[in-house]
Amino acid sequence: MEWEYKTIAFDQFVNEKNELSIEEHLNAYGKEEWELVNMHEPKMQAYGQPNKLDESFMVFKRPRK
């Protein structure tokens, strides 16, 4: 089986439709066959080290049609 993937910044995900709860957002993606497979949150920046990813993002997948 082949998969297609989608990544969305968490802030963008929450602000897509302000009136929806997180659960309602996830259910809407589920209706489109997207499955949340991972959520990446950046680690705390170590002193003197650059933080390469400064925002949380979500990874979804669904079967390729």
From TrEMBL:
InterPro entries in UniProt = YjzH-like (IPR025234)
A Pfam family the protein falls into: DUF4177
According to UniProt, the name of this protein is DUF4177 domain-containing protein
| Organism of origin | Holtiella tumoricola
